[in-house]
């Protein structure tokens, strides 16, 4: 009788995850990255980093990494109509990033995280209604709750600081992102193709801006801070969240993921409170509650 030496790895048994558990793990990672995106923008502003500095970390690593993929699928990418291409670029590329980055220099993390992802159902419904969709406003009670939450933040939250224009930029970012999702669906691009397209086009647009405003503040950052920004913006937002969210949708369904995404403002607000000392005010809590509640209500089955 022959005996085979057992592999040391055989002694380590990892628990097998079900499809649902894997989906929730992927969605949890996605929420952390989404919340980290707003924290990174705010922390960059406090470190006197220009939005273009953070944009360099956000788009250039993905562009370099995915350039071979973009070249291999260049015919497919070149077939995207110019109108959809502009909607994709402005909705999730450099223009969107610079607007969000500039606005986050003047507002707390909780407000930005509430007004951009939290109002996506409302902005998507408005865009669909503008395009002639009859059923776009069918869930009007949920949309009304989101709208009231926005008004609370605009009147009570921004009124004290005189930053109403900043909150207007957040709402514009929400509209741009909603238009991006619609354009991406019509273009028929796979997630990795969309990331490559956004990274390359945004990097090309960014080069003249960097010549005008060199990233001197970025290069002067301590190594650990620079590494953290790179991990959040370059790897997390730029690459990992795309795959984790796609995996979550495949395992849980789009409806559950959309409802779970409503937790982004809450998570971002809690992390900003713990890490940046930004305690949310009453207007932020009331507005956040109305908007998050409206998003969850909008995902109910009818």
TrEMBL record:
Coiled coil: none annotated. Keywords: Membrane, Transmembrane, Transmembrane helix. The chain crosses the membrane at residues 21-43, 55-72, 84-103, 115-133, 140-158, 164-182, 194-214, 226-250, 257-276, 282-298. Pfam families: EamA. Residues 29-154, 166-297 form the EamA domain. It is found in: Membrane. This is DMT family transporter. It comes from Inhella proteolytica.
């Amino acid at each position: 009788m022959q005996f085979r030496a057992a592999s040391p790895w055989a002694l380590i048994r990892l628990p097998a995850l079900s499809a649902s558990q894997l989906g929730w793990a992927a969605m949890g990672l996605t929420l952390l990255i989404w919340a980290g995106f707003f924290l990174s923008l705010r922390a960059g502003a406090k470190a006197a980093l220009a939005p273009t500095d953070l944009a360099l970390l956000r788009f250039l690593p993905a562009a370099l990494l995915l350039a071979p993929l973009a070249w291999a699928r260049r015919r497919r990418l070149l077939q995207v109509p110019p109108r959809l291409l502009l909607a994709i670029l402005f909705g999730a590329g450099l223009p969107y990033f610079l607007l969000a980055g500039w606005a986050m220099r003047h507002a707390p993390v909780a407000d930005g995280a509430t007004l951009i992802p939290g109002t996506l159902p409302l902005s998507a419904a408005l865009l669909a209604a503008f395009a002639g969709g009859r059923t776009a406003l069918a869930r009007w009670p949920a949309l009304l709750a989101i709208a009231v939450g926005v008004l609370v933040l605009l009147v009570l939250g921004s009124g004290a600081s005189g930053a109403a224009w900043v909150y207007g930029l957040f709402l514009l970012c929400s509209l741009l992102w909603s238009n991006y999702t619609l354009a991406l669906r019509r273009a028929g691009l796979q997630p990795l193709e969309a990331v490559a397209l956004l990274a390359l086009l945004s990097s090309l647009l960014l080069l003249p801006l960097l010549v005008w405003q060199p990233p001197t503040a970025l290069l002067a950052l301590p190594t650990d801070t620079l590494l953290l920004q790179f991990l959040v913006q370059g790897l997390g937002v730029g690459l990992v969240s795309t795959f984790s969210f796609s995996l979550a949708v495949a395992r849980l369904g789009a409806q559950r993921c959309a409802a779970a995404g409503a937790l982004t403002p809450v998570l971002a607000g809690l992390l900003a409170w713990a890490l940046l000392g930004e305690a949310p005010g009453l207007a932020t809590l009331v507005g956040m509650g109305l908007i998050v509640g409206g998003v969850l209500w909008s995902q109910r089955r009818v």
